[in-house]
Amino acid sequence: MAEKQKHNSTFQVVTDTILASLEEGVAPWVKPWNSNGLGLPANGKTKKTYQGINQILLSMAQVSGEFSSSKWLSFKQAVDLGGSVKGQKSQAFVVFYKRRAKFEGQWLSAKKESELIAEGMGSQIERIPFLTKTPVFNLDQVSGLPESFFEEEQASLEKTREFESPGIYEAVIQLMRQNNVKLLRNQDKAAYSPLRDIIIMPPIQSFITKEDFCSTLLHEIGHWTGHQDRLDRDLSGKFGDEKYAFEELVAEISSAMMCAQLNIDGFLQHAEYIASWIDVLKNDNRAFFKAVKQAQDASEYLLNNAKPEFEQDQGQDQGQEEYEEVSALPMAS
To answer: Which parts of the sequence belong to the Polyvalent protein metallopeptidase domain (predicted)?
Structure first.
């Protein structure tokens, strides 16, 4: 029974989704986020951008479904807006936490919980969070929405495109300076030294494009956020072990998130780690959630120290009100 519950858990469903992509040699968090001009995955009703795991899952679904929109709706939201998804079965989903109430070892119905609270026994109720999921539908799958909705959608899309700027190198360097990141240029490799607390980078001319340079630099800045004086992650892993692979996963996802914020076409920087990441995820079906959470923390750390022009809407949105987002070697490369 325990094995069956593990297999059917939302954690396992998400992990299996990520593993399937990795086993095909594709890192699902790496995508030319805004190269199609559609922007990040967002809720079509509230306009809030999805965060963390949900951002990655919906980006994957957008690509696999060949959708022309980055906006998503729950079934109820689509109906509330006057649309219809009848006959449509969505393969896309978002995950969120709910809480179940327990009293004296027994699970409570919502009615019984309310009764106990009314009797003044609310403080004795144990509330246990659990991860669950719900299907969402891309706008391409919804029919019957009013014209006014699409006028707002077009205005939002044009605003996204206006934000795009060719000065991505300048944006990354400015972000780095605002966070007081120490950078040593013109070296023979890209790496971060926790001991010296410094990033080293090859000359920009050694990269094929500025985007390549910037996404690599953002990867190293991701490691930089893990220093004991910042987010204090475990940077003691050695090449080839699980700690090292996990930290590389955090830095990879953090880089992808920052590329998304700055409209940079990211790319997979360490394909040689895919096998190690597969092992990590197979050993722990919550590992990817932990990595995404730490990557989200790293991205938010950088953006919180930056000036307002780097800050975009970080509001959490899961489509329904009750959703709660789930968001050493001397050198780490």
So the answer is: 173-293
For residue 107 the two structure tokens come to 């699970």
> Is position 158 within any domain?
no
- Counting residues of the chain whose pLDDT is more than 70, the rounded percentage is 81
- Backbone φ and ψ for 83, nearest 5 degrees, come out as -95, 180
pLDDT tens string 62-90: 888 888 888 999 999 999 999 999 777 78
Note the pLDDT tens digit of each residue in 246-276. 999 999 999 988 988 887 876 666 677 889 9
Higher pLDDT, 149 or 311: 149
Residue 213 located in a structural domain: yes
SS3 of residue 200 by DSSP: strand
Residue-range definition of the domain harbouring residue 234: 165-316+328-333
Number of domains the chain contains: 2
For residues 113 and 108, what is the distance between their CA atoms, to the nearest angstrom? Answer: 6
Rounded CA-CA distance 148/154 in Å is 10
- What does the pLDDT average to over 172-194? 92
The reply to whether 237 and 130 lie within a common domain is no
Asked whether residue 162 carries a pLDDT value surpassing 80, the answer given is no
- DSSP strand pairing (93-103 vs 106-107): antiparallel
Please tell me whether residues 333 and 212 are part of one structural domain.
Answer: yes
Write the DSSP assignment of 34-59 as a string of letters. Answer: TTTS--S-EETTT-PBP-HHHHHHHH
Grouping H, G, I as helix, E, B as strand and the rest as coil, residue 250 is helix
Residue recorded with tokens 């009764």: 115
Same domain, 125 and 249: no
CB contact at 8 A, 298 and 223:
no
User: What are residue 184's DSSP bridge partners?
Assistant: 200
Distance CA 311, CA 300 (A): 9
User: Using one digit for the tens of pLDDT, what is the confidence trace for 194-206?
Assistant: 999 999 999 999 9
Identify whether 279 is part of a domain.
yes
The whole-model pTM stands at: 0.79
94, containing H or E segment: strand 93-103
